[in-house]
Amino acid sequence: MVKLIAIDMDGTLLNEKKHIDKPQKEAIHDAIEAGIKIVLCTGRPLYGILPFYEELGLHELDLEGYVILNNGCSIHKTKDWELIDWAELTPDDIDYLYKFSQDYNINFTLVDEAHYFNIGRKPTDELIMDAKFVFSDITEISLEEAKSGKYKMIKAMFLGNPEEMANFQKKYEDTIKDRYSGVLSQPYVYEILPKDNNKGTGLKKLAEKLGIKQEEVMAIGDGNNDIEMFEYANYSVAMKNASELAAKAAKYRTDSNVNDGVAKAIRKYALNKI
Question: For residue 36, what is the domain's CATH number?
């Protein structure tokens, strides 16, 4: 029996126009009415999910809701958006990671609860686009201020055109993963998380806090950053448009994000209505 469903957003719940189609909303509402906890589990920061959370009407349906953000590095209670669990990068981490961006035409960015920071280089088209996707302005910050300890820097990201990022990943991924969790979450974004943090660890923490067993957890996603979430959840469902690695990691399949894949997965595997 499914008691918690973790749902990725981009490429999963959201269609190609970054909207939530009506069948997805209806299936989510039906699941909540059936007593299932719905948790958005995404790489987006808090400010990148607020309009969607309101659009889904989850405040009215679940007074004790939660979201897992920044690829598992932060968990918020939705009642007052209190940050209840998080991991963060240290000043030494920021100093170390910044140097990797110097040989490529890419941006080095940092995320806290309220800001999308950019350090040092003029924003690339990819950074400008990504900031729009998460409803944020870009805040320019010096390396020294980023390391000052004034902010909870929850994750770092390198952004550039896909060819540049592929070269970056090939050269630096092994080195980076010695000290951090890293994932190419989009062709133009390589994300850096504090070591041993990912969607799977975030989902595990929340399930245990809620007293929900691993065998009662379902996860729906499409990307490489969903793999650890799939490995944890007993019911792991990959979208039809999932990456090859994500599809291999999931036990089950559903339709695409433009053909009501989330709704179909919820009804088939959680509500047993298909």
Answer: 3.40.50.1000
Domain co-membership, 71 together with 22: yes
Asked if residue 168 and residue 111 are part of one domain, the reply reads: yes
Name the nearest CA neighbour of 127 among 141, 117, 142, 115. Answer: 117
Structure tokens at 101: 């961006």
Rounded Cα distance, 162 and 158, in Å: 11
Active site members: 8
Domain count, the chain: 2
Amino acid at 60: E
Tell me: the pLDDT tens digits for 206-265? 999 999 999 999 999 999 999 999 999 999 999 999 999 999 999 999 999 999 999 999
* Regions of the chain where pLDDT drops below 70: 274
Name the pTM for this structure: 0.94
Residue with tokens 């990148």: 48
Listed residues 125, 158, 193: the one ending a domain: 193
Q: Are 203 and 210 in contact (CB under 8 A)?
A: no
